[in-house]
TrEMBL record:
It comes from Leifsonia sp. NPDC080035. It catalyses: ATP-independent breakage of single-stranded DNA, followed by passage and rejoining. PROSITE patterns: TOPO_IB_2. Pfam families: Top1B_N_bact, Topoisom_I. This is DNA topoisomerase. GO terms for biological process: DNA topological change.
Amino acid sequence: MTRLRRSDPSGPGYARRSTAKGPVYEDEAGNPIVDERELERIRSLVIPPAWQDVWISPDARGHIQAVGTDGAGRRQYLYHESWRIHQDRIKFERASQLAETLPAARRKVTMDLRSEGFGRDRILAAAFRVIDLGSLRIGSEEYLHANGSRGLTTLLCRHAQIDGDAVTLTFPAKSAQKWASTIEDEDLAALLGEIVALRGARSRLFSWKEGTWHSIRPASLNEYIRRQSGGEFTAKDFRTLHGTIVAAKALAELGTADTEAKRKKRVSAAVDEAAQALGNTPAIARNSYIDPRVFDRYRQGEVIDTSGGRAPEPALLELLATS
């Protein structure tokens, strides 16, 4: 990997200025950049035209190459390719570690979920179960107020429909998408059914009671995940693991292929299935949520084996461990 230097976007950097003839890039002193090699590096970053207040690293080896403010007022970052590769390796390894811890963590969560009342840990256990089985985004008050999109921690009782052991969640999700998923779980359905019956349709679904009702917070859920798993995991790691498993199982169902054209077509279909499960575009699902080793193994003629009702997590670990 290229030896990188840590960027400081608060320090001096290049700027982008819009003109009638297109963007002009200026150095730290405000002079137009004319060096063709440097201009080619900047153009290769493909900084979105809509970004405002753009900062560009003057160092080709800076770990952050550009920063800008998008149309929603959020600061966005473009990283050096070597940095992205390194961070992706860490991310997918963390998802594999989560897969190893899940059997024991799930047993602890089940104990909390089967406790009495509406205590904090019981509600956090329900949230863990939904993150684990449904791969929802965790949600935040900021996203809700800025975009009207919801995640697990900001769901209302009216977003849940309980039918026997089935919990169906339907709500406005990120990027103006409608999320609809059903989770089959007796313990979860029993608890959420009680909450929906007790509280109003516009009350928060994942709330615990100690005198009054309190909504769970993303930080509390992530802390509970770490406590039960014994690792430094967050709700997002479940989405990475889930996306990888969905793609791996889809490839196994499609079967190995004897030509490169067939392999590409089946990989694309597996990515589409993972994207559908996660509520992302195929490009984001492939680049951010599916361990690329699954595709490497597929090209070598290897697929995940979940026959005989085998749990997907150990089957995935076995697949990824092969050389």
